[in-house]
Amino acid sequence: MLNFPTLPNVSPTASFDSGLIAIAGSSSISNKKGELLLYTDGVAVWNKKNKIIPTNGLLFGDNEMAQPTIIIPKPGDDSIFYIITVKSFLDVGPPDIPIPVINPGLYYTEIDISKNDGTVVIKNQTLLPFEVGKISAVHHKDGESIWFTTSGREKETDKFLSFYSFKIDKSGIIKTPVVSKKLRYEGDFNGTLKFSPDGKKLASSNLEKELVFFDFDNETGIVSNKQNLIKSSVFFDQPSVYGLEFSNDSKLLYTTSFNKNTNTETLFQYELDNLHPTERIKKIHTKNQNGYTSLQLSHNSKIYKTQTRPNNKSGDYLDVINAPDKIGLDANFKTKVISIKDKSGTGLPNFIQSYFRTRILNEQSCVNQLIDFEVDTYSKITAAIWDFGDGNTSNNILPQYAYSSPGNYNVKVTITINSRQITTFKDIVIHPNPTLLKNQKLIQCDVNNDGVDYFNLYNINHKISQPGSDLTYHFYETKADAEKDTNRITTPESYQNKTNPQLIFTRAINKNDCYSIETFSIESSFVNIPAINPMIVCEDSDGIINNNIGLFNIKAKKDEIRKLLSLPSSSSLDLFPTLKDAQTTTNKLDDSINTTSTKIWLRIDNSIGCGGINFIDLIVNSTPQINLQNEYTLCIDPKKHTPIILSANSTNDKFEWKNANNNIISTNRLFTLNRVGKFSLTVYKTENGIECSNSKSFMVVNPKKPIIKNLEINTENSLNNFINIEVEGTSSYEYSIDGQNYFGNNTNYTFNNVSPGIKTIYVRDINNCEPSIQKEVSIIGFPKFLTPNNDGENDVWIIYGANNDFFKTIDITIFNRFGKILHKMNNNNAELGWEGTYNGKTLPSDGYWYKAKLIDYKDKVIEKTGNISLIRK
């Protein structure tokens, strides 16, 4: 038995004089003073003196179940209590023992504690005559009546369970339940059924079956909107879920999942306010365990958990979730918190859940900030006594109170509801307000001495607060606006003063949302800075001509100015793109910038504020002009043509023509092209006192030579061998086959009556500019005779043009009139011809025959058979 003290932050203590040894679940109830009245396991009932109340037989409860019973007081009557019991299965004793048959069902027994510390008025009255399991209770929306709900099935053949909710009011139990049948809820009679303390949710654990929660209407008693929860954060893991409990703010659900395969139990947390609570499952604790454990919320807002040991005996301790309304490990789960000397089993007592709803809603605030204290509970509060933990109190139900010092305060409130007093505690954290320095000012440089300028009010940050302060600032023109947080200055980065000087109010807020209000002044002061020499650079446009962008070395200019004005290191010097940026110290320029010609603004700051603002001209010199092409064409023999002379732009001052090796070959403005290659021109021009340059590379090339597009050789008519050639080029061309005499003036030409043999075709540009080309061709010819008399003419018979350069296969056979092969020629000996011999012997004058097959490199085949006259003189 646990005794909960009325003092804050004091753990409950265990006593061991109870008459009950619960196998699993039980229930108990105390009076308004917290004094024990009754407790039961659903089979027997004990009074406050730990004596069994005579019941003339057992109560019809199943004390091996997680929730066999619950005790509910009759509203408006301090003496009458209802013990609700559930029986899930038919209970028949051994034949030789006269134990009455107990049918499954939901039963109630009425106890009057005003008589003999507890007397049975009504016993084991049936509310539902079929299988039921698990039971939970919560207050009605009216704050006085009470709902108790169980799950059951009217027929053994029913697969799904329905919920049955009974209302208890001042008249007693209303016997007709509110039935919720359309949920298709496949549950188990064992496990736990729990209402959330606010009475809006109902959760059910079902061992190996579904883990589900529902919406509950605590006005009508209807259960609706079934939602499944995953039972483990490990995919495919399906443990048995037994214990479950809500946090007292009703936002978080805790479950104990037991894996029989590994003998491990895991405590899980679910965020039920999330649209997808199964995605927000968090593992709080895992341990080796041999059996199921229960969870139960207490009036101190903590959740207690039973233990079992590996040998399946009762545990020695209770575990506790100290802050169950916190997410994840912040819930602060601790093991072995309360020693109960081997008395911790599977279950914990079953209570009306709304009893644990009562809580102080406030958690933290700031020094001197009014707090609207409020209590959340299940019924209308008719009185309240507050103790704010600093020696001050209030009797208001909804008091306002402000703490004068930071710290942790234990707030206590005793409220009265339904003529019953309930005391609850809450630790309230009061955070300090930011510390701000007084009499600070921002001094702005007045450029035109009119007293009106732009200010960046955020620049007060480092002056008005301590180093390292992480504060958020809002600014106002009046104290009333600062106090009410109305009419904030909407453009604090660029605020234009209305008077000079002007008082500004700031509201500085720290990370705990605590704030302080302080004033500072803004003042425009004229400070003269001498004119600064302009920055002049050459255009640097990455090859894009005339975009007038230059690269400016801002860092070097700042160093130059600091030295010029002899500024101490304690003064800051920055450059900005606009006057407004300089005044508000926003958009500082980097160490280097690319820009067109423009103005930038110099700002100097010293210990008292702005030390002056002035402009600096940025000037981008234009790029020296070069008007050259990327490529020029030079004829093969430039001496035969008008020379090509390139001209650099006369607006430039100096010129450098360079070859491919970057050697200067001319410094004249004009440059004559006389050879091919890569060249470049660099020009120089002095402007605004600095010399800028520009370069361009170009190529000088010969014109492309023509190419032979088509070549046709016809030797089929031995009386007129001809060659037709067609070229592709940009000019007109003339043609020759002896390199001396040229014909034609076009892109094609035909040579007629070409004698057999290897010929060279020459093609040249008629303008003598392009390179000439030439091509060897083979004109096949078959001689009719041979005269081997060593006079140098026709001494051998040879096929003209039959050459390895043109034919990949040469196959020639010579035979006599009787078909006898006299000689063979191929690629190795075709050019030697036939001398009119056979095996080294001279053949007589006569007629002979040949057969020839030639295959060129394009696989064109020439086959010919003919006769040869051998003439000897």
Structural overview:
- With 873 residues, the protein is mostly beta strands.
- It has 7 domains: 16-354, Methylamine Dehydrogenase, Chain H; 358-431, Immunoglobulins (Immunoglobulin-like, Sandwich); 440-525, Immunoglobulin-like (Sandwich), CATH 2.60.40; 535-621; 631-701; 707-779, Sandwich (Immunoglobulin-like), CATH 2.60.40; 785-870, Immunoglobulin-like (Sandwich), CATH 2.60.40.
- Helix content is 3%, strand content 46%.
- The strands form 20 sheets. Strands 10, 11, 12, 13 and 14 form a 5-stranded antiparallel sheet that branches.
- The chain is elongated.
Structural class: mainly beta
How many structural domains? Answer: 7
Radius of gyration: 55 Å
Largest sheet: 5 strands, antiparallel
Low-confidence stretches: none
Return the CATH architecture of the largest domain: 7 Propeller
How many strand segments?
A: 69
What is the name of the CATH topology of the largest domain?
A: Methylamine Dehydrogenase, Chain H
SS summary, helix count: 4
User: How many angstroms does the end-to-end distance come to?
Assistant: 151 Å
